[in-house]
Amino acid sequence: MELPSIGMIKRFVGADVGVSFISESFARDQVKAGEVKLLNVEGVDLFRELGLVYRRDRSLPRAAQALIALIREHHKPIEHASAAASD
Asked: pLDDT band at 79, cuts 50/70/90?
């Protein structure tokens, strides 16, 4: 099932309608309240792919320019499972 928000996902899990993979930090309050339980998943490499979006046709503040430069400097391309399987 696909839900539109983390809050909705947590409500469904708390209502015993399913399970989900979300960041531990997003579920901290519900765990403290005893509404959900966290399980550690061992032996699986989980990752989150993030994107950077900005308008190229607009000038950016120096802080934003510095952030973009820092991200580009430290960007490491993600090797997807299909590429790794073909090696």
From this structure: low
